[in-house]
Design a protein that fits this description.
This protein is mainly β and 128 residues long. The protein is built from one helix and eleven strands; from the N terminus they run βββββββββαββ. The strands form two sheets. Strands 2, 4, 5, 6, 9, 10 and 11 form a seven-stranded mixed sheet that branches. The radius of gyration is 13 Å and the shape is globular.
């Protein structure tokens, strides 16, 4: 069992930055691919970005490329989402997710229903 706890959300003005963290329990974090998803009010949960178990491969949805960056520290059992140049349309609850997977297949890492564990979410609000 893996427990995920997100932190770092908040209110920021457009153009600002936030860094989300997701701390994972367990001793096998380095075997897990990690993903970030977001859900705006009245909308479905959408893929934001993912990082492979080793950190060697990352994927992003088009709307955040060049603005968001995912990284992980396997020694700290933590994955990060650095969000720069934030826009009001980035407003959502952000969730991290973990999948016990040592591959890098795009369709697996970018699809929410392939993930095994989810955090409780953290609210990000970007004001205009």
């Amino acid at each position: 069992q893996v427990q995920l706890v997100e932190s770092g959300g908040g209110l920021v003005q457009a153009g600002g930055s936030l860094r989300l963290s997701c701390a994972a329990s367990g001793r096998t974090f380095s075997s897990y691919a990690m993903g970030w998803f977001r859900q705006a009010p009245g909308k479905e949960r959408d893929f934001v970005g993912a990082i492979s178990y080793s950190g060697g491969r990352t994927y992003y949805t088009d709307s955040v490329k060049g603005r968001f960056s995912i990284s992980r520290d396997n020694a700290k059992n933590t994955v990060y989402l650095q969000m720069n140049s934030l826009k009001p349309e980035d407003t959502a609850v952000y969730y991290c997710a973990a999948k016990n997977y040592r591959g890098t297949v795009y369709s697996i890492l970018t699809t929410s229903n392939t993930y095994d564990y989810w955090g409780q979410g953290t609210q990000v609000t970007v004001s205009s």
